[in-house]
Amino acid sequence: MGYGSYTASDWSKLKSSRNLSSTQTVQEVFKSSNCNPKMNPKFIGTRECFDSSDHPNTTPIVVALDVTGSMGYLAVEVATKALNELITKLYSTGAVEDPALMCAAYGDYMDTAPLQVTQFESDIRIAEQLLDIYFENKGSGQVALPCLWEFLAKHTNIDAVNKRKEKGFLFSIGDQATIRSTSIPQTITRVIGDSLPSATRDSLLKEVQEKFHVFHIMIGGEGNNDILPGYKMSISQNDIGCIPQIIISAIQLQKGEKLDRVLEQWDSVNVPVISAALKQLNLIGVLREICL
To answer: How far apart are CA 199 and CA 209, in angstroms?
Structure first.
């Protein structure tokens, strides 16, 4: 994993071969009818993010999408446009060294596939794997996001963490769905296979924060203030086109950049949306990890 580089021409070829368009439906973009075993965490021992000759200082970045029924438009936006913009802007801004991206999909805790995870990659395979995700399109409003936290905490082997003591970045993106605390241990056992009878939302979040700076982008409304206080950014559905810039800006702030320097790199039309999102973070003026 982690060899090769992402290029605009590779994206153009993939977009053309899959006939991708932001006007397509979820079913037209995500054609898988079931979960690919290669993305099923129960069959995955460890996801690795290792340095290589091509990328000697890898920075792991996880983009996790809510794939419950209400979030179809978001998945289409990311798959057909935003993911490509995020990767190209990561390179053009130099926000991190050697970005290696994993895509994840988290659904309802009662889904047949509540969690899917791709490999960490640095080339067009990032987008190819995302398109192979199974969009289950259900949901009762109780998401399995803690399963992703558990997987990243216990089932990743990351050179940035092990060799350089540098954390990766996790951005989950979804709407106002809640996390069902009472079902967490049983769901983790069913989805991942780990036995954690005393696991709670807070204990799993604390564990994953040892490896990743964890952020959540909330689409629509100000609900669920108990989810990642200080690390949650609420934006409207109309502003999802700014997600790549928001992600990169949050990374830069976490790495110590000043807010004005971060904002000046973006188109002035988008700055109000990006600024409003970033000002919800406790990082501004503090720029250090906050214990939850």
So the answer is: 15
In terms of DSSP bridges, do strands 99-106 and 115-117 run parallel, antiparallel, or are they unpaired?
antiparallel
| Token pair recorded at residue 9 | 């021409």
Distance CA(217)–CA(222), nearest Å, equals 11
Q: How many CB atoms lie within 10 A of CB 211?
A: 21
Local confidence pLDDT in tens for the 292 residues of the chain: 556 889 999 999 999 999 999 899 999 999 999 999 999 999 999 999 999 999 999 999 999 999 988 888 999 999 999 999 999 999 999 999 999 999 999 998 889 999 999 999 999 999 999 999 999 877 666 788 999 999 999 999 999 999 999 999 999 999 865 676 668 899 899 999 999 999 988 899 999 999 999 999 999 865 555 677 789 999 999 999 999 999 999 999 999 999 999 999 999 999 999 999 999 998 754 444 433 3
Tokens of 102: 């994993």
State the Cα–Cα distance between residues 254 and 62, nearest whole angstrom: 15
By 3-state DSSP, what share of the chain in percent is helix, strand and coil, each rounded to 5? Answer: 40, 15, 40
Q: Identify whether the C-beta of residue 88 lies closer than 8 Å to the C-beta of residue 49.
A: no
Helix axes 83-93, 8-17, angle to 10 degrees: 180
Report the run of H or E that residue 91 belongs to, with start and end: helix 83-93
Identify whether the C-beta of residue 284 lies closer than 8 Å to the C-beta of residue 263.
no
From 149, 160, 161, 124, select the one nearest 41 (Cα to Cα): 149
